[in-house]
Amino acid sequence: MEVHARSTTLLEPQFPALHPNLQDQLVPLTIFDKAAMDFPIAILHAYRAPTPSNATITAALSQILTHYPHLAGRLVADDQRRSCMHLNNAGVRVVEADIHGDLEDHLPLVPSFELTALHPKIDHAEELLQIQLNRFACGGLVIGLTVHHQVGDGLAISLFLTNWARVARGLEVDPVPLHDRAIFVPRVPPKPLFPHQDIEFHECTSLPKAPGLVENVVAHFSPEFVKKLKESTSCADLGQRPYSTFECVMGHLWRSVTMARMNLEGEVTELKLSVNGRARLKPGVPMEYFGNLVLWAFPRLE
């Protein structure tokens, strides 16, 4: 796959004065932002023809950035050496590229080093959000983006992408993102109940072991299989809530992998899960909150 970049621009929000209280502010990272990974995340979205023009997409991006000023800012340190987002409307990087050939010949997109050409380079990039519009000869489009994880978690970025698409279609922004980071008030006095310092904020003192060969496997479970799986794990007769689809499939995969590894009797296995804290905090936080609010959970089983 030969990708030919034909332009690169720095796109700024269309109406930067929409949030005057955030204009040119230094916004310290919350404790949840600091718990997120300190590097960009790369994402690819593929769309078959017909698709909107690049002009329509970039115009919608400039408009939606008005509602997401953090994405157009920069990570800096304040005079107290705290990590902050400078909401200076410096803009996001937009690359337009052409690819000879049909998108259909490359679908589904299988993870490979070749796909790195479909999103902007992340080395030494100061932009918190970078977009690459990859146009195929057939009219298909792959949007590659890199976004710094400390700006927002998966749900926050997903809602941003949804609203970007809505604006491109001429629809209203819905839901409107919540940017109030003052809602996170620690308990007085502090009352830590979990060892977060040893998990999310654990500092590595040695180099990690070199990983072995990792193979990406895509497994498809039919609706009939999932239904049967949920029925086999039903606990409604015990007066408990039924297990969710995620819990049933996760448990099935966990057990299958453990059996395939032939773990010794009594050996403890552990699963690492990301958990959305918006509905779990007391009081809860609206789902449209833009930022990081995900922590790790580690269920164990013997």
What key attributes describe this structure?
302 residues, alpha+beta, Chloramphenicol Acetyltransferase, 2 domains, three-stranded antiparallel sheet
Structural write-up:
This protein has 302 residues and is of the alpha+beta class. The protein is built from five helices and twelve strands. Helices cover 19% and strands 21% of the residues. The strands form four sheets. A five-stranded mixed beta sheet has the order 1-6-7-8-3, with helices on one face.
Brief digest:
The protein has 302 residues and is an alpha+beta fold. It folds into 2 domains: 3-183, 2-Layer Sandwich (Chloramphenicol Acetyltransferase), CATH 3.30.559; 196-201 and 216-301, Chloramphenicol acetyltransferase-like domain (Chloramphenicol Acetyltransferase). The chain has helices at 31-35, 54-64, 154-168, 223-232, 245-261, and strands at 3-11, 26-28, 40-47, 74-77, 83-86, 92-99, 129-136, 141-148, 269-270, 273-276, 294-297, 300-301.
